[in-house]
Every structure is written in structure tokens, then in C-alpha cells.
Specification:
The structure is a homotrimer of 291-residue chains. In chain A, strands 7, 8, 9, 10, 11, 12, 13 and 14 form an 8-stranded antiparallel β-sheet that branches. Chain A has a 6-stranded mixed β-sheet with strand order 2-1-3-5-4-6, sandwiched between helices. The first copy, chain A, is 18% helix and 32% strand. In chain A, a hairpin with a 4-residue loop joins strand 8 and strand 9. Chain A has 6 helices and 14 strands. Chain A has 291 residues and is an alpha+beta fold. Chains A and B meet through helix 1 of A and strand 2 of B.
Chain lengths: 291, 291, 291
């Protein structure tokens, strides 16, 4: 089967995990993949997802996939439930990418941004590393890397992954961004961008643009940040294109590189300076002045 | 010589070191290797071995190699004695892998798990980067990366590395795991798995299986951990397949992904919670109850 | 244009940045590059440059390039002024390497060590990722990775990058190493080598050799380190080839792996032990004894 290559072969395999970079885990997955097909091109998304943080995994994966060629196979392993009954799946997105992962919420933002073309459960009776039956704690190596490699190599077709799951992917709950009034938009802080400490909200630039303010106008907006309802930050901040448009140390509101509204300190660290973190309990409010 | 490829050519070169990821060191080694043959496939095992920690290097290397194809060349550089008289060697294991390294203990667990097929000393009069004669502190780049690349590229055969060494590899001393009585097994804590904080002992599942207890039975065992003989941990822990089989925060005893007995807290960090570290002065005792 | 390959094609693309390893940034750049040409070989120099530290970026890049094949394309993105009027450029060095970067000082040590063959400004009207016009904060992905990939792939020639800039690269100011008297050399501490804590000065071994002292002679030198003129360290240190030539914990003076004079503690951390940092305000004086 190894030598009969299917048309889905991309040769591109990208790993993401919370395994860190100091242990044998990541290299073991890569060895398994290259043993399937030593011609695979293997890349890392990141292995520094906070341990067990499926939310962060989902956001990071969804924020990267658009830049990779169609048919790229992503193997995403943040798997606090390894060895239990969460399902092991492969998602084909409407954008033509594949994600091999435990279906534990990791696909939340992937499904939202790229759409679900088809979801299949991995049939471990055929798609599991031979000889690994006694190991129950490292599906990243024995199931996900192995299956991802075979798919990327064209050793199996997507159909050969296993049966179609006739249900949606598992999705984490979270508050959507919304326009509250003519002059107010509210959203959540979904991420702190390390190492810079920039704040990323889930407010799309398209929603912000309903204010009718162009980026070159030098307009300012009131920014409020609350943690479980308690005010943590309340300042008026200029809306500009990029960090260099304000003085070092000054705050700015800007559309970030994936077109979500962000906050930063030019050459500084907004999150550390103002003790801001990310998650559903952190809200961000943008208020338009009549200036 | 560069263009005459030998049958040992795998094209696969894997680096491990304690050089960290923030400096020019790792990329310099890779540049040297690609200058030997720009068609090599280069991968990282890890570069975050604790500085000078040959024990950790040996364990990490030995825990990874089995998953890589035959003929893969590993370049392992944790080299506190660089520039002194420790020998630079290439080991061919009985499993058909190659390790290029200072012979300073790094091969301890590799030799134990994969067997010594042949050990050769690197002849630096031919296997040293041309022009590097004045540098004495970076054999990783000038000797090991260069020689490893030439071997992986098939520019030299294993025999052309240098003369056979008619002795064993240098081995670090450590206490083997042993059955003390019908109901007691003792071993050492050899590693804390970062970032999860799981405990890895040197007790093989095969030795544990002499207790005659199957993993699905829901049996519990008494676990004692001592540091230089002083008790640090003493609890009864269930023996299960994986983290998800106990509640979040609960301890478990399990066979880890390389079939050594491990301890973990489900979704927690065992080592941090109980202040456990790894090394020969840390012992682990497993006692079988008559339950 | 993608399929018409130019003779500058090397296929080798090396990324350096201050983006860290935990976010989507690095993988987004790589995806863009592989979407240009999925046959590119992509490597990392480091992504752990201290945020915004152009000095460190320049030193790290210049210390690595010599080991890479001619025509390798380096994409170096430490870009505190992203979105402002610093120029985006590609440098062709006299050594035949290419560097794609904001011209903000990153090229300082590259130009000094490898020479400027030609400097061209990136014409973003053609060399910018299609569809990225609305993004202003991630030129690493949209301009530098895209242009670097096209150059490495041979999709464009160096001439097609954009017009020649008839000026020097932007250079950071710094104090050169100099011989002060028959017995005294002075220089700056340019870098602390992580994770070992070795001190790297900007004093070339060639300048030190004017003392007429051979490395095997067992000679000692007085080393003074000052911070803004205040003495921080003053000891007599042996001049040896490498760490293993002195006892563990002892200091040594040695020519480092890129032939600059360095200071280290054997199996220890000189910088941490003596609270030394790097930068233009840290000076190092070496005095020759009449012993």
C-alpha cells in the first residue's frame, strides 16, 4: 500500500502539540512519519501550546492554516483525554486542508473559519502503527502521526481513514463578538500574542468597519477591558495601521495580521504592563467617540 | 568523494544538543551539513538538553531512536569535555542506526537498548571540516555535524569514519531495576517528562508483569519514593492504562509510551506537586497488595 | 513566473526572527514560502532573538552565515518599525548569500563581515503576497517570507527584487576593538552565549595574536570588565584552547568558535556567576603580563 500513491498526496505534514521541545515526544512522531515515507516534508507549527489547553490549540491552528497549500496535513495533538473515549478523527475542510486530531474541541475555530467538508473517524484497526498495541498514552505517535503521514504520503486516501461521522465536530463554547449599539462593540480577548504581549480580540475588522471610520483618519477610541465584569483598563487609544505610528511605549488599536482587532504597546508589552490575560472571562469594549 | 554515494546513504540526519534554541550554534551545524550535501533531510531531536547533562542526553536519545528508519544518522552533542581527550566516535547499533558523538556516556542507554554492532573513532585528519583547524571549542560543527553529514549523504562509508575501537562505549553508572521480593520491585526515577511532570522509572513493564496483574483489573499498588533514602511520597495508586482513567488531579501508575512504569497526575503535574526530581539518588518502590 | 527558474535558485531558505516558538507567526511564514514553491528546503536560524533587539539579530545572523552554501536566502525579521518608513531590502553579500530584511541595523555585522555586493529595495507592487494588502503588521509573512521564497525558488532574479539602493546599509554604532598599548587590548562584550553564559568580545584572535603569545604556552592574562566605566570583574585568567583545559568552575580565556576572544567558566556560567551582560556599555580589557 505504501507505494501506491493517491491523488491527495501533498507530501506536507505539519505538527502541533503541547509536548514542548525538550523531550523525545516530537522527534518520535517525526521518526514514525519518516518511516512511513522518508520523502515527506515535515514542519512544526508549534509544540509550546500550554499543556492541555485545547482553546489555545484551536486558535493557533486556525490562525495558521490559511497560509499553507491545499492538501497539507496538520497533526494537532493536545490530548488531555488520551486513552479515553474521545474520538480520533480526520477533518477535511472546505479549504482543502486535512487535520488529524482528537475531536476534543481542537477543531472549534478550524471548523468556524474553514468549514467542515467531511469528518471521518480513524479506524485504528488499520490506521495504527504496527507493534504499538501495548501503548495507550501516546496516540500522537501511534495513531495521529502514523495516520497523518500515510495520508500526506498518499499511502491511504481520505476515505481509507475510516468511516464518516454524521455529526458536527466538538466545539468549545465562547462568546461571539457583537455590536451592542451605534457606538459600542463588545468581544472577548482570545489570545495574548507571545512574546510581544499584544492583545488579540475576537472582533473582526469587518465588524469594526461598521463604525465607518477609516484607518488613516487619526481617530481615537475608548477601550475598556473587564475581567469577570471588573474594570481592569479604561483608556482612549488611537486607531492606526501599525506599531510604528505611535511613540515607543504608547498604546495603539489596530487590525492585526489575521484581521482581528488588536491592542498593543509600541515596542512594549501591553499584557504584562496592564496585567491582562486571555479567555472567555476577559471582555473588551470599543466605544466610538463623536470626535 | 562527495559525489560517490555509498549504500549506507539514508539522507536523514538528526541533531541533539544542549545548545539551546536562541543562538547561532544549531544553525551553524545545519549549514555545515547542507554544505556537504544540500539534499540531506535534517531534523532536530531536541537542543534543550540541560547543559552538560550527559545522563539526560543518553536517555532522550535512546527513547527516540527506535522510531526512526534504519541508517538514520544521529549527531548527539552534549560535550562538557570538548577539546580534551574524550574520543569522538561513531556507533553503529545492532538496530542499524548511527550515532556520532563524543564518547562520554551519551551512548550508555543507546548501547543498552540497541546493542553495539561496531564502534569507530573519528579520524579527524580526514573527517573534520576543512578550514576549521584553528577552532577548538565547537566540535559539534567542525567534527560531528561534518562527519554525520558525510555519513548520511553517503560521501563516506562507516569504515571511512576511522579505525575500530576494540572496547565498550563509555557507560554512566546507575542502579538497575530489580525484583526485591514476591511483592516488591525497586528502581530509580530516571526522568521527569516535561512539561507534564510525569515520573518515568527504569522499571520495565515486563518486570512489573511478573506480579501477574493485568492492566484492566483495577488493582492498586503502594508507591514509595525516596530521596537519598528519605521518604518523600507514600500513597496507594491505581494501575490503569492512561490518564483519562482517573479523575482530574488523581494519581495513576501506568506503562508509559516506551513501556517503562510511570506515575502521573491526570491533567496535573506529579513532579511539581510532590517535589520529585530525577537521578540515581531518587528511588521508587512498587509494592503489590494482596487485594 | 513560478515555473521559470533562474540560476540564483538555491532552494534553501533560512528564517530568523524575534517571534518566539509558541505562536502562529513562524509557521505562517513557512506556509507562505511553501505555497510559493513546495520544493523549498526551509530551516530556522533562531526565533528567540530578544524582542526588538536588532543588535542581537545582527550578531546572530552574521555569526551563522559563513557555514551555509552560496545562494542561501536568509529572511531576518526583527522589525520594531514594521509599517513605518524603514526600507524593506535584499542584500547580496560578497560571499554570495542573500539577506531579506528591514534595513534597520540588522545588516550591520553582515555587511562588516561579508561585504556589500549590492543592496536592492523590495518593490512591493510586485513582491508582496497577493491578497495581503489590508495587513500592515506582518511584513515577515507578507513581504519578507514571500520575497525570500521567490528568490530562493528562482521565481525571481535578484534584479527583479526591485531597484538598487545607491547607499550603504543602515549600521548600528559600536566601539571597535583596539590595541591600546604594547600590553593592553580593549573591546566590548558583544554577546552572552546562552545557555552556557560564555562571554563573547569583539576582539578578534588576530588582534590578540599581536601579543605574540601561543595558545599552548600556559600563559595567563589580566581580565578587567567594566560597566559604564565601573569595575565589575578583575582577575588573572589562563589562556587555553578549550573548557576542558581548566578544572570545573575555573575561568578561562579562549578563542571562540568564530575566532573572537571569549571568557568562560568550565562547566559553569560566567555571566550569571559574575553578573555580566552584553552591549556597548560593557568593556573588556586584556592585559599581558611580563611572565
Amino acid at each position: 500500500m505504501k507505494d501506491k500513491r493517491t491523488e491527495n498526496r501533498s507530501g506536507l505534514l505539519v505538527f502541533m502539540s503541547d509536548f514542548g521541545l525538550s523531550e523525545r515526544f516530537v522527534a518520535s512522531m517525526k521518526g514514525v512519519a519518516l518511516d512511513v515515507d522518508c520523502g515527506l516534508q515535515i514542519h512544526d507549527l508549534t509544540h509550546l501550546i500550554e499543556p492541555y489547553n485545547v482553546w489555545e490549540a484551536s486558535l493557533t491552528l486556525a490562525g495558521t492554516m490559511a497560509y499553507w497549500p491545499r492538501n497539507t496535513v496538520f497533526v494537532a495533538v493536545v490530548d488531555p483525554g488520551v486513552g479515553t473515549d474521545r474520538k480520533s478523527v480526520v477533518l477535511r475542510t472546505k479549504s482543502g486542508h486535512f487535520v488529524v486530531t482528537p475531536d476534543n474541541g481542537t477543531l472549534t475555530f478550524v471548523a468556524e473559519q474553514f468549514g467542515v467538508a467531511e469528518l471521518r473517524e480513524i479506524d485504528e484497526s488499520v490506521n495504527r502503527r504496527p507493534g504499538s498495541e501495548a501503548a495507550h498514552t501516546f496516540h500522537g505517535r501511534d495513531v495521529y502521526a502514523y495516520t497523518g503521514a500515510r495520508l500526506a504520503a498518499g499511502a491511504i486516501t481520505f476515505e481509507q481513514v475510516g468511516p464518516v461521522l454524521q455529526r458536527d465536530v466538538v466545539r468549545l463554547p465562547y462568546q461571539a463578538a457583537k455590536r451592542v449599539s451605534q457606538t459600542v462593540i463588545q468581544g472577548a480577548i482570545i489570545r495574548i500574542e507571545k512574546p510581544f504581549g499584544n492583545i488579540e480580540s475576537n472582533i473582526p475588522k469587518a465588524l469594526f468597519d461598521e463604525f465607518g471610520v477609516d484607518i488613516g483618519q487619526g481617530r481615537e477610541f475608548r477601550i475598556e477591558i473587564k475581567h469577570n465584569g471588573a474594570q481592569v483598563y479604561d483608556h482612549v487609544v488611537p486607531y492606526v495601521k501599525s506599531f510604528g505610528y505611535v511613540a515607543a511605549g504608547e498604546a495603539l488599536l489596530y487590525p492585526d495580521s489575521i484581521q482581528l482587532m488588536g491592542l498593543a504597546l509600541s515596542r512594549g508589552n501591553f499584557a504584562e504592563t496592564h496585567h491582562i490575560q486571555a479567555g472567555p472571562e476577559w471582555t473588551l469594549t470599543i466605544t466610538k467617540y463623536q470626535n
